Amino acid sequence: MGIDPGTRLRELETLVLRQDPSLAAPAANGHRRIRQRLDNLPAGLTPLVGRESELGDICSLYRSEGCRLVTVTGPGGTGKTRLAMAAAAKLGQRMADGVGWVNLAPLTQPQQVAGAIAETLGLADQAGEDPLTSASRFLRTRRLLLVLDNFEHLEEAWPVVLDMLTAAPELRILTTSRRCLGLRAEYEYELAPLALPPLDPPLPPSELRDVPAVNLLLTRGRAVRPHFDVDRGNAGVLSRLCHRLDGLPLAIELAAAQLRQRSETELLADLEFSLAALPAAFRDLPDRQRTLTATIAWSYNMLGMAERLLFDQLGVFAGDPTVTAVCAIGGARGDSGPVLKDMPAEDVLAALARHSLLRRYTDPTGQGRVSMLHSIREFARERLFLLDDPAQVRRRHAEYYLGMAERMAPQLWGSGQVEAFRLLHSDAPDLRTALLWATGSGGSTDVALRLLGSLWHYWELTGDVAEQHRIAVALMEEVADAAPSVLAPALSGTATLCWMVGRYDQAAHFHRRALQAFQSAGNGAGMAWTIMCLATQAAQQDDSLTAHRLATEASQLPQASPRTRVAVLIILGLLAFYSGDNARALALCRECVELARPLGDRALLGNALVNFADALEQAGDYDAAEQSLYEALGTALEFGAQGYVVAFLESLAGVYTDQHRIEEAIRVLGAAAAYRTDRALPLAEAERRRIEAMIDKARAEAGPIRFGLSWAAGTAMTLAQAVQEVQRGRHQRGVNSAADQSEHPEPTNQESAINPAPW
């Protein structure tokens, strides 16, 4: 007729010629013939374990108004594909036209994505037509879920997803990727590793089995060891194993496969050294998932140059650094200009987070931090040593954490103690790494001495000093020449660490060297502190005459700090206590508490309260003693000073014994003894005799069987469990602490201005 057919007529002609199923004629009963459902969803080869909550979350997203595209993101090995399969199976029940599964992993070019989708939809034989056009037309009238698995290396194919969503209003798309697509219609679901069990206090086996990471380890472990289960003997090992594997499903499955020839204890020992000890275990996994290293390398190879450089430098960190630390170390200037020339470190961090190679979060103090899985951190560490200047990165790292330690060290003695302790504790792995570098080959003696001089009191508060003691002694024995102002604090700290591990002669030797160094530096406050420390050692070794003489000498030095003066009073109170002069001990200990409060040093106040409680106990006032000990315990728990908690618990056990609460006392003493044994923290002679007298008294009252059972129960507890038991007993009995019984005024401005540091 000479009239050109319109667009819709030409499309209809194409559909007729192709015999498209959408043109099916009505059946005899007048209804349109039912279209064949698409269902090429692969069957899961292993059960989905520990992801019930996540499965429900993803399905509920599609019930949100307007949600048609969900991308499951997360690091390699978190189980994105397996979760997507389960979600597709559940969602597909509500999709009239079924589910289409598209595996994008084998593709190498974004241009191949549309063709792969068309092939999944059964449209691959339509020669000459654009695959995206045919796929969009096919989907236009269909209610179907399309799953695009492993999208991360083809992100430039995002227009394909957008065009299909625009053309087909009833289409739902689920993608998996290590980074999101960046579309407005996209709902991102970040898949975290499996939930982990607490380590302290540990869960009983019956509860441990229900923890997702442990559940998967048991499930996959039974594939190679049919009767594999958790019990009291291996519960701790399995918990630590799951933590070492970061709760990463792929890592857990690879580890479980090794249980065929290794015990869980042997496996944990191997993995503590390196996660690379996990070999390939499954032939049916794609190459990029055969090992953890291959999985991470797949993501690493998609990074740009600036992203790779900062990622490599992140290998210098041992813990979760602050964003400030990363920018300072990774964004520093090298000999040839800025390390990151193209973009700021902050922007590169954001890019690495989008690739699921790290996670950014805000810690309880409000600081932004960067977290990496153990396996990814190990990969970064290996990359670090392939850089041109790994030594420079390590030096920058050590110098940064030295600066932080020197800023925080003075605050550990006063009202800023809790915040300073928590900050140092958050960065403890990197402070340790800095010290190991400084004391190692190619390190810096000056940095090592300054770190030791700044951090020894933090280590003292933690109570975990065995490694630091060895490092400090080796360093002090090698130092031939150093500035007295740098050497003196390091020597004083080394002496304290020696005392804590029971090397009393060694401690006295280093204190005497510290006294000489403080004198050479003209630091009278440091001299007074050191003399006081020597007096403390003499008192605890029953040399009361020397202790009294040195304590008096320290207090008479005009430069002695307020803290040193309180410590001198504590010594005099102890001497009165050990000599049996109850009235003088009680008066001195009460004065110590009153003088310690304004300084804001919770550790000092805790010690003063414990000595006061011991004097009250000796005077027969057990209730007041118990209240003072609860306050002392509270001061230590406020900032996690485990090194002080154990001593406070031992004194509390003495009060329990006097109150005839024998089983409670024995369990607390057992837990304290186990803690000291594990950490090689012996008691000083006078304290050892006091604790032994408590134990003998408790054994005599309880009898051998009752004592043995209670002692075994106590030694099986962690220190945290012992504290929990003490707190439960306190609340059940309605006992308040001394702080609850009376109001203590806040320090005045003048008191707050007092410098509580020893020098």
Structure in words:
The protein has 759 residues and is mainly α. The chain has four domains: 38-190, P-loop containing nucleotide triphosphate hydrolases (Rossmann fold, 3-Layer(aba) Sandwich); 205-293; 389-519, Serine Threonine Protein Phosphatase 5, Tetratricopeptide repeat; 570-741, Tetratricopeptide repeat domain (Serine Threonine Protein Phosphatase 5, Tetratricopeptide repeat), CATH 1.25.40.10. It is 58% helix and 6% strand. The chain contains 36 helices and ten strands. The strands form three sheets. It has a six-stranded parallel beta sheet, sandwiched between helices. Strand 4 (144-149), helix 6 and strand 5 (171-177) form a beta-alpha-beta unit. The longest helix is centred in the middle third of the chain and has 19 residues, at 390-408. The model is unreliable at 25-33, 333-338 and 748-753 (pLDDT under 50).
SSE arrangement:
Blueprint: H1 7-18, E1 38-39, H2 52-61, E2 69-73, H3 80-91, E3 98-103, H4 113-120, H5 131-139, E4 144-149, H6 158-167, E5 171-177, E6 186-190, H7 205-208, H8 212-221, H9 235-244, H10 249-257, H11 264-273, H12 292-300, H13 305-313, H14 323-330, E7 333-334, E8 337-338, H15 345-354, E9 359-362, E10 368-371, H16 374-384, H17 390-408, H18 417-426, H19 428-439, H20 445-462, H21 466-478, H22 484-500, H23 504-521, H24 524-540, H25 544-556, H26 562-579, H27 582-596, H28 602-618, H29 622-637, H30 642-658, H31 662-679, H32 685-702, H33 704-715, H34 719-733, H35 738-741, H36 749-752
Parallel strand pairs: 1-3, 2-5, 2-6, 3-4, 4-5
Antiparallel strand pairs: 7-8, 9-10
